[in-house]
Amino acid sequence: MATPFPISNPPLVCWNCHERTIGTHFCPGCGKVLQVPDHSDYFFMLGFPRRLWLDMGMLEQKFLGLSWKLHPDNFVNATPEEREISLKRSSELNDAYRTLRDPVSRVEYLLAIEGTRKEGQTKQQAPPELLEEVFALNESLDELREAKAAGSDVGSLRQRLTTSEQSFEEKLKAVDGELQLAARKWDQTLDTGADEDAKKRVMGQLNDLLNRRSYIRNLVVNVQKELL
Amino acid sequence: MGRIVGIDLGTTNSLVAYVDAQTGQPRCIPGPSGSTLCPSVVSIDPDGGIIVGEPARRRLLTQPERSIYSVKRLMGRGPADVQSELRLFPFRIDPSSNHVIRVKLGDKLFTPPEISSFILRELKNWAEAFFSESIDRAVITVPAYFNDAQRQATKDAGKLAGLEVVRLVNEPTAAALAYGLHEKQRGKVAVYDLGGGTFDISILKLISTGEGDIYQVLSTNGDTHLGGDDIDNLLQAFVHEQILQTDQIDFSPHGEIAQELRKELIAIKHKLSEANSATLLFPLPNGKTFLHEFTRGAFEALIRPVVDRTMGPVKQALADAQLKPTEVDEVVLVGGTTRTPLIRRTVQEFFDHKPHTELNPDEVVALGAAVQANILDHGVKNMLLLDVTPLSLGIETYGGAVAKIIPRNSTIPASAQELYTTGVDNQTGIDIHVLQGERELAKDCRSLARFTLRIPAAPAGLPRVEVKFLIDANGILQVGAKDIRTGEQHIIEVQPSYGLNDADIERMLEESIEYAEQDFAERQVIEARTEAESILGATAKAQSNPNAGVLSSPERAKIEMSIAALQEAVKGNDYKLIRQKIDELNRATEHLAELLMNSAVQSALEGKKLAEV
Q: Which of A203, B218, B240, B543 gives 20 to 30 Å between its CA and that of A57?
């Protein structure tokens, strides 16, 4: 997604009473469930500002509270049109909760709706300072695969790989830590009313960290698969 | 709109239930015989009449080639999927089956949804007789681990039976509803559901809030290919092997003898849940009797692999819910097979918690379905059910890999979007292959459907079509597509990989009108005739047994007369007369039965002694 969404809550024209409204889920005029807007905003849906630190308890509470109202079970005897709309809205709600619950997908989503998510040019691009280690790791992986295919002893190779894997898992933890710090910085830009440039800088950092994390995680997963 | 009933369409037994308005408690509806259980067995008469339930079960012995059981095992699956089961299940899959299985019953072919629809229609009749009103809406339960095709097949079966399937509910969730209502539990609950053919484990969180009770499924896992039937098959294979060794008789799983043996072994299995041993006395075609004493210990050793197979999904479900076994507050056992002591012990040891068994494990799912039906019917505002999809939804990408777009255990309804464009100038179709499963490669996942997006010709890379994948509250996939540039909705042609398309169903609905619904008296006649066939067959066999020679002439004459009288009665339509003649024949053959029993035991014991020499 390249362009950011203009406003969080564009006014909707209620499909039922045709009133122009800025209600979130239900039309304040006629009470019917509102159609889903063209661009979803998960933060707005659950009633949160676009902050990266969220109170999990409150998030769950909001989710459950809205579920009571939006669940398809409430619309079984309604018109097909209403059923269709409630189905879309309740799935958006669930998608929103699923996305915002996980810290990493939360960051990804924020960048996506702010229009600043850029995945690594090639996801296979190793961060420069890791090049040497990654090279060594890939060598070990290849050796292990060859040894397995040839049926020869893999004991010491496995050992080497396990050590590598552990090292990369440490790096993964480190990235998650950095992600958390950058996330806090983002929230601060909101609190201090920082300018657009400052915000863009933080988002740039978040973006790079996400790419780095994605790369390392893929490495770890590949190694774990080989070691199974 | 009419009332909604709850239906458990089980592998072995099916039930229909409702919520009593006075008491607010769910109750199962009994059939004409007084039992709430309708065996999921269907038999087709030579004249096309359809027989369902207990009478059909008896026909498994007398006319196995016209009858079928455990059809749930075939729902939503292709012929290749069930090949391994054919060794042990007498399914007669017709060679004309391609993506939908066709089963031969007599000289007619039926699809699994059609056969299931006969069972559903039977239950519909029970409910209509009970309420004296037309019933055409139902909540039907499915194993939580059923994939999209299996769910769609169940919905199709409902439609063919003249029922609007208002909701498909997952069986463990339904059980949790029934228990939640009954026991007022709160906290983390594990539902271990082992039925005739499927296994489900669901982990739920039950919360009481100011608004009401929330049943939130945290994770679910299972095996749609594992159940009591597998225990029966193990027993059968064991005995089959023994008989092969001792008597050199090898009978095929498709014959009457195999069905007789299966019936006896099921009785043995049930007995071993109560007693420490059970003896099998099985008359062989060569006149001898096979005798084997099953001890509970030996039985448990034999069925251990089945029980062990359930623990893999259990551990995975707990891992997905991020819980340790001891963090589960309550454990619930569902499904007839959980009456087995070994299973109860294994579950109790694993969770370190005594499982709940207060509600009848055969009825609890139907009761839960009724609770859900009631919620939907009356818009009950104080119960909220949040269920999940059991399998990750993915799309095939380049190189045969799968990109997961909706992860397993996502709360449903759930959706995901993908943006598509063309790679070639003037390309007018984009093919999408949707799959379910956890593996990395498309070939290892379950093919769900193939869609083709039809788009107007344009230069490569210009079209932008957003495809929305939505898993609805039934756990079934819906797809919508929108052209981003024009805002138009797109036409999607769906080819289900393992199911009926709309044209198939329309045609079947028309055909189903031919199968006239039997009214009460007609069914009584059919049931009486079936029982008559059964006893006439048994009597003929008994008479040909060498030990029958001991009978006196007057006795033999009496038996002949009773046989003739019964055969005459069967030709007519007076079911009361048929039953009377059945009783008379039973009395006439009492002595004969006794003789055979005694000599069977004796010869079996003698045989054993000889072997020990």
A: A203
Q: Where are the domains of chain A?
A: 12-114, 128-227
B209 touches chain A (CB under 8 A): yes
Task: Evaluate whether the domain defined by B520-612 bears CATH number 1.20.1270.10.
Answer: yes
Buried b (16+ CB within 10 A) or exposed e, B75-103: bbbbbebbeebeebbbbebeeebebbbbb
Q: What is the pTM of this model?
A: 0.83
CA distance B479 to chain A (A): 12
Q: What pLDDT was estimated at residue B332?
A: 94
Domain spans in chain B, listed from the N-terminal domain onward: 4-226+308-386, 393-499, 520-612
Tokens 């060594």, residue? A136
CA torsion angle B497 B503 B507 B509 (round to 10): 80
Q: Kindly indicate whether the domain formed by B4-226+308-386 is annotated with CATH number 3.30.420.40.
A: yes
**CATH for A12-114?**
1.10.287.110
Q: What is the pLDDT of residues B176-215, one digit of tens each?
A: 999 887 777 689 999 999 999 999 999 999 998 888 899 9
Give dist(CA B120, CA B123) in Å, integer.
5
Active-site hit among B54, B72, B114, B269: B72
Distance between CA atoms of residues B44 and B47, nearest Å: 8
Q: How far apart are CA A228 and CA A87, in angstroms?
A: 41
pLDDT per residue as tens digits for the range A109-168? 999 999 888 876 545 567 787 888 888 888 888 888 888 888 888 888 888 888 888 989
**Domain B393-499 grouped into CATH 2.60.34.10:** yes
Phi and psi, residue A21, nearest 5°: -140, 155
What are B261-270's pLDDT values in tens digits? 999 999 999 9
Q: Which residues of A fall within a CB distance of 8 Å from B212?
A: 68
Identify the DSSP state of B401.
B
Task: Report the alpha-carbon distance of residue B411 to residue B494 in Å, rounded.
Answer: 25
Q: Which entry of B171, B223, B229, B527 is annotated as an active-site residue? A: B171
Say how many C-beta atoms besides its own lie within 10 A of residue A6's C-beta.
Answer: 7
pLDDT average, residue stretch B497-509: 77
- Is a pLDDT exceeding 60 seen at residue B609? no
Q: Do A73 and B416 touch (CB under 8 A)?
A: no
